[in-house]
Amino acid sequence: MTQRLFPEWHPQDAIQLTWPRFDSDWVLLLDRIEATLEAMVVAIARYQSVLISVPDAATRERLAATFSRLGVDARRLRLIEAPTDDTWARDHGPLGVERDGQVVLLDYTFTGWGGKFPAERDNALTRKLGDAGVFAAPIETRELVLEGGAIETDGQGTLLTTEACLLNRNRNPRLDKAAIEAQLRADFGVERVLWLSHGHLEGDDTDSHIDTLARFCDERTIAYVRCDDRNDPHYPALSAMQEEIQALRQADGMPYRLIALPWPGPCFAADDGHRLPATYANFLIINGAVLVPTYADPADAQALAALATAFPDRDIIPIDCRTVIRQHGSLHCLTMQLPRGALK
């Protein structure tokens, strides 16, 4: 049996989004987050379909009318009613693998990042969508606690992740590093697991998801967050992470092509002033384009230019994520790509 985890640049059927409930943590920012999500849908639908789980029929009807008004092709929009807790599809959505030439969706256990937040409905969402007849691919449930934002793959047998997340005792306390790595190898067909032991963002609820720090852009290229400000509290950990990434090697022993992403100015919460985990690494690769989070910061232009060198054959599309970051996530966190062959 041959098996692999699809890299994000593999051709996609759709991007999955989860629309916020009116009574969720977004209640005070609902208009703003909906505007951000609308901008994302309009951008994505130029290239491919969008699957959106919505909390109720009223929201489904309202969004259908909204996107029709915004010029979104109805054939590229699927709105499915399903109960959820929050909006972070990256972490409660399914992970697509190729097994003997067929697409299979793996449904891992989601616990709200180690029990920090309610997650029972989010954890059941993939099965709900499956029951609704959304998927063409079979769904397999896994007991392992794992979020999509915690792993990156080159699609060629290498997985990149962080010790701070996957080895955190709030995820799989009965499994040590060797046992977790064995499960990753079995499920994803990977031959190498590259572990980063440094790197974190203040205000991050995920325990250092890799998609906030370092990302595969292709089989030989890694884009990563670099902090050049020696006075910033992130400088020691991110400098140590940079050294780790520079020491990584491809399977053939060659160094990776590395693209350093700039460091945005600090974003702070409006209520108590704590720092928010703004990062340009939280970009999204879709068919023909890359959506990049921006923060109305001078470094936005540098980030867009850097990623344009990583993706010369794709359009680079900025998405204002100043509202998203107020709930401690960003653009990639809101999305899950569904590989070609996943949807009916």
TrEMBL record:
GO MF assignments: agmatine deiminase activity; protein-arginine deiminase activity
InterPro entries: Peptidyl-Arg-deiminase_porph (IPR007466)
UniProt KW Transmembrane helix keyword: no
GO BP terms: putrescine biosynthetic process
SUPFAM superfamilies: Pentein
Source species, domain of life: Bacteria
Keywords of the record: Hydrolase
The UniProt record lists the keyword Hydrolase: yes
Name the record gives this protein: Agmatine deiminase
Organism field: Modicisalibacter muralis
